[in-house]
Amino acid sequence: MLKWLLGALLCLLVVCSAILGGGWFWIDQKDFAALATQKLEKATGRTVTIGSLRIRAGRWITIDAKDLHLANIPGGSRPDMVSVGALHVRIRVTSLLHGPIETRDVTIDHFSGLFERTPDRTPNWRFKPQKTSDHAETEHSGSDKPDLSWFPGLRNATIKDSDVTYRSAKGSSYQVGMQHVTFQSDNDASPLIMTFQGAYNGTPLTLDATMQPLKVLRRAPEPYGAKAHITSGDLVIDFDGTLTDALNFDGVNGNIALSTPTASPVFELAGLSGTHPAVPLALKGTFSHTGDNWHLTNASGSFQNSKIKSGTFDLNEGSNGKPDIIATDLNLGRVDLNDLNKALSSGKSSGSTDIPLIAPANPDPVLHVKLTADEILYNALTFSKLRLEASQTPGRIDVSTLALGYLGAGLQANGHMEDQGGHSRVTANIALSHGDIDRLRRTAGLAPVPVKGALSIRIIASANNVRTLNEATRKADLVAAVSMEKGEIAREIVEAASMDLRLLFRHAKGTTPITCMLGVLEMHQGIGKVVPLRLKTSTGVLAAKADFDLNRRWLDLVFASRPFSTSFFALDIPIRVSGRFDSPNLSIAKWSKKGRDLLADSNELTVLPAALRSFASSNACVRPTQ
Questions:
Q1: How does pLDDT run across 491-512, given as a tens digit for each residue?
Q2: What is the four-CA torsion angle of 379, 530, 517, 594, rounded to 10 degrees?
Q3: Where is this region: Disordered (predicted)?
């Protein structure tokens, strides 16, 4: 925007310089508005009006212009592209002969510039017909070499009560308000100092910058050094680096540091109005910008109470109506989602933490995320070693990798969500390995079980018309296979399950190894069944079926030994366990109709989905008991 501003003003100065060649004697009394208007209209192809334009001769030529208007293109959102209330500038005469132009005492009042694309993407800052038939702007190429050899000397310049607005083809506007802006340099070999007091999209902003001398700027695309300190409310940004095209803020490379105790200015600068949560944010890294790419690497910092150990952020601006694309690769430390949720809700949230599951039909920006974290706290759950890879397309989000540790077990998943008109359909494949039975049952609130070992679980899950993770968990339909290859069970349980008469004369001690265990689970919105559930040991084979309700934390389980597998003394009477997870009741299964029905189904064959068959096929318990 600075380039466009300077370009418009320099165009006026060039016209004035041409006028000076016509003579010196009558200049002081002449109003050159009409002549300048004619020259500018010919140069731009636009309608131009100038209220007055006067020139005073001398060693430093003084130019005063008032009420200047440059028309917008047809289809623009307002009549004027540029308007200037008043312009005052002094130009060294000798600089007109050998250049670059040297100026001082520059004052610009009430400048207003609108730089926009019409709905057909025609840019209003192009003043000559384009070669292409649709007048589309040629895309910026990183190989373009800016020519800044013309850049004027600025001994002192002030811009007051002005604004520059960029308006996209989609109608989004970004306005820089310039309440008071100054440029100062002793000569072209001394540093250029800039101060800025104004606003971005209505959010107050101040900037202090120290830049290399103008003679270095004119050698573009050689790197041009600049240091800037920016503040907006409690937001502080510091930049120290170089630019190869300073007027376009292009070819940028340098160190940047950002900090804010509330993040409120960040929301406001992003155009998100209203009340925002107070989230402390600190970020630093190496920033670069070339063409349509904005990049932050070697990033580190923190947000809320979570640490960013390292990471990269990459933004590619969309062209020709396409959305922006943001790719991130972050390595985090401990992330407390409960604490973050409380902060984001301004401390008003008293419910559980939840994660939205929304797949926008037309996302802008489009996100591609890689994320690792040492530890994740989510409600009462604590996960370790998170690894996540996800990408976004219109109406869909794919999670190609989700891996984390939970209670010593390894959890891996993949899946996707699809847009359903503001809600989502979610499908997932989940695998858990090395899940310790005792740790898992204590977390689930189950009573102690006389089985030790590690479980492997495969799950296929889906949920329709959901908006959050917790809702998807409650409404999920799933089928799962649970397997254990190595473990042990209390010997007295096997003998008790078979009603071994020897228990009348002795108490079985110790454990017996589990040869295999296999269970198949089906669940709809928290209500489901486990059938079959088979367990083989050297002293007997058990078969079982269970109905359960996670919402009520209730189960009904029947199990029995198979006569072919037990000793001569076994009566093989089936047992029923029924009631709440933490305090179930024990009875003989055949004493109730429910128990007899469960018993009849306990050896039922279940057809597994193809994705689970290979997992279960290697388990010896996949074959039904006799």
A1: 666 555 544 434 434 444 567 7
A2: 130
A3: 122-148
